[in-house]
Amino acid sequence: MMENAVNIKINGFDYQVPAGSTILEAAHMVGIEIPTLCYLKEINAIGACRICVVEVKGARSLVAACVFPVNEGMEIFTNTPKVIEARKTTLELILSTHKKECLSCVRSGSCELQKLCKDYGIEDENTYKGDFVNYAIDSSATHMYRDNEKCILCRRCVAVCDKLQSVSVIGANARGFDTHIGSAFEYGLGDVACVSCGQCITACPTGALAERDDTQKVFDAINDPEKHVVVQTAPAVRVGLGEEFGYEMGSIVTGKMVSALKMLGFDGVFDTNFAADLTIMEEATEFLGRLNKGENLPLITSCSPGWIKFCEHYYPEFIPNLSSCKSPQGMFGSVAKTFYAEKMGIDPKDIFVVSVMPCTAKKFEAERTDHSAVAGLADIDASITVRELARMIRKAGINFRAIPDAEFDSPFGLASGAGTIFGATGGVMEAALRTAYEVVTGNELEDFAAFSAVRGVEGVKEATYNLNGTEVKVAVASGLANAKKVLEMVKSGEKKYDFIEIMACPGGCVNGGGQPIVPASVANFTDVRAERAKGLYKDDENLPLRKSHLNPDVKAVYDEFFGEPGSHKAHQILHTGYVERKKY
Amino acid sequence: MVKKISTIPFKGTPEQKAQLDAVIAECKGDKSQLMHVMQEAQGIYGYLPREVQVMIAEGMDVPLEKVYGVATFYAQFSLSPKGEYDISVCLGTACYVKGAQQLTDKISELLGIEPGECTADGKFSLEECRCIGACGLAPVFTVNGEVYGKVTADDVPGILAKYMN
User: Hey, is the C-beta of A174 within 8 angstroms of any chain B C-beta?
Assistant: First the structure.
């Protein structure tokens, strides 16, 4: 007998489920799936869309399973004709104001509305004909667009923007039939203080929100004989991409990914993990420098462009605390257009750098040309998401599951496990500590568990480490609402840290806005962040090289080009600056 | 109906700002008072332009989009200032059946504004209102409270001409 359990009946069968569960959760536990559209666990439980309705004996009307708690003796029916009919009608009503261009829609195949229409056997898409509000597509933002004609007003995007990210630049405007998702005073997303994280895109059940597609730009570059096209893949891409091709969540597909990129025709396939190692060299040096001088502490990481934009809009007073290091994406682009161009004897303007990122804010970062390594040239020419790479692979007819593994190219092909774990919250901190420990103490770090307190999906993590007698207080935050909490505590003096890692997306890049879409039916019952992070930590464990400063490719770049970490040349090429941006 | 956002430049005075600041100071820290603050602000400024909504958002520590969401949800909030002459067309049942819609259409046509809007020179604003209790005079409209009853669309130009200069 379960403690705090209640006895219920679902579809005539007896079950015992934990008290306090919703009908949706209880049904899931016993193998019955109830469809949802607006519900996102712990984020959006508003019972608005009415797709999850079920019959409860004694209740006057159908109830919303996503918010209705079970109680002792409850009798629930999840698939009676009345329930099925109600769900079908709801779908038909949604379709009456939905732009039904499913053949060309970016979300065809991953659309939750499309799937439900199929599951419920909608025979006529136009059962209800009536008014249709026309909206212009908002493509004012660098990283994405919004097509309100495909919006079903589930408000999942609004909830993630507000609750997870505390950015809150989108909401429901007007009322009744005119209700639409937008920003204050109907400004475009590019004109408000949106941070470009893309969490709204991965939360969207339909094709109303999508990244700006840059795949054609990449195909064009590959097909341009004048261009030497190189590509880099971020740490979290190798653990995300597989899902697009039916691999289990958390699968590492590095070899096949590299193979596919070579088959797509890139002239060089490199690992952003190499650049992550480079970042650690620069950032650990920067940190130890600031720690010695006691200035601009806490140092706050700068890898996450969504976080950077958040800081610039909402917490400009922390700009001096930001690491001046470019993100790994930026560092790779900078090295490609300087060191690599020189080494290969190619004019930097003929090098086209593509990055594959689990991120939409990287598109915004790529267009910040104020600190280019080569004046007048962008460090990154195109930044695409994991979803876009999958699109390219499919378009090129590459059978991802069938191709053999391949290895990254030299000279930026070797990377440490420290670089790999950049993709999970706490990873940058752990990577930096591995290097800082060895640099400061001169001892070899053998116990990799020493810094594992910063691992895990919790929104805010803290630890204190002793580096050769100096106590170092660190904090790790992921999800901007958590970042806000940490920053407010630092501001009020309640907490004092030396080093803070902040990732815009909850769980870090593994859960980035550019990762494959996980339908709510899966995300509501799986910790996507934890599953994908597991893959990265396993990858780290299996790698022979696990510390950034031992990466031979990184050493070579310093020996042949930069001299040493933090050198003048390194500062010119690998570091950047930030600007205050307006909040309104 | 989607509310029209006025493009007329904001002309708030320091006195108005001081009044709003006082209201916000009273409600600070209690986000449930947002509606109240917005009502007071509309009382002070006559409408809720962007500048005022930003003051409220900052003062109440709520996102601007939330303020705007509330402002566009409730009919009582206006995003357009009242003109020097505020025209209200009664849309009560009696006025409606006697042709109030034609009055609104005619006024709209003459002034180039839709209900809920204000002319660019700030002279006229137009709104539709609920029954004002003058059903015997239907259809009725008012200009700054002055009642015009039993009017037809053809009477409208003559009436408005009185306020034109």
Answer: yes
- A133 and A74 in a single domain? The answer is no
Q: Classify strands B124-129 and B85-90 as parallel, antiparallel or unpaired.
A: parallel
ipTM confidence score: 0.93
Of residues A367, A313, A366, the one with CA closest to residue A484: A313
Q: At what angle do helices B64-73 and B34-45 cross, to 10 degrees?
A: 70
Is A184 in CB contact (< 8 Å) with chain B?
yes
CATH of the domain at A145: 3.30.70.20
In a domain, A131, yes or no: yes
A90 within some domain: no
Burial class (CB in 10 A: 0-12, 13-18, 19+), A201: buried
Residue A580 domain-assigned? no
Lowest mean pLDDT among A56-70, A240-254, A437-451, A484-498: A437-451
A353 and A273: one domain? yes
Cβ distance of A175 and B73 shorter than 8 Å: yes
Do A135 and A227 fall within a single domain? no
Q: What is the pLDDT of residues A320-349, one digit of tens each?
A: 999 999 999 999 999 999 999 999 999 999
Rg (CA), chain A: 25
Q: Would you tell me which residues 29-48 of chain B have a C-beta closer than 8 angstroms to some C-beta of chain A? A: none
Task: Say yes or no: A188 contacts chain B, CB-CB below 8 A.
Answer: no
Report helix, strand or coil for A463. strand
H helix or E strand, kind and range, residue A14: strand A13-18
Backbone φ and ψ for B93, nearest 5 degrees, come out as: -60, -50
Least confident window among A191-200, A220-229, A306-315, A463-472: A463-472
Which of A171, A178, A584 shows the shortest C-beta gap to B69?
A: A171
B75 confidence band (pLDDT: 50, 70, 90): confident
Q: Which secondary-structure segment (H or E) carries A541?
A: helix A528-542
* Domains in chain A, number: 3
For residues A86 and A90, give the distance between their C-alpha atoms in angstroms, rounded to a whole number.
6
A415 within 8 A of A407, measured Cβ to Cβ: no
Residue where one domain finishes, among candidates A161, A190, A211: A211
The residue segments making up the domain with residue A179 are 124-211
Report pLDDT digits (tens) over A177-189. 999 999 999 999 9
Same structural domain for residues A70 and A161? no
What's the mean pLDDT when you consider all of chain A? 96
Hey, where are the domains in chain B? 14-73, 85-161
Q: What is the DSSP string of A112-156?
A: HHHHHHHHTT---TTSS---------B--SSSEEE-GGG-----H
Q: Of B158, B131, B130, B160, whose CA–CA distance to B143 is shortest?
A: B160
**What SS3 class is residue A34?**
coil
In a domain? residue A328: yes
A248: buried, middle or exposed (CB in 10 Å: 19+, 13-18, 0-12)?
Answer: exposed
- At a CB cut-off of 8 Å and minimum separation 6, what does A22 contact? A65, A66, A67, A68, A69, A70
Residues A256 and A326 placed together within one structural domain of the fold: yes
Residue type, A295: E
Nearest to B69 among A172, A178, A192 (CB): A172
Topology annotation, domain B85-161 = Glutaredoxin (3.40.30)
Residues A298-326 as b/e (b if ≥16 CB within 10 A, e otherwise) read bbbbbbbbbbbbbbbbbbeebbebbbbbb
- A157 and A287 in a single domain? The answer is no
Cis status of the peptide bond prior to B115, with omega within 30 of 0: no
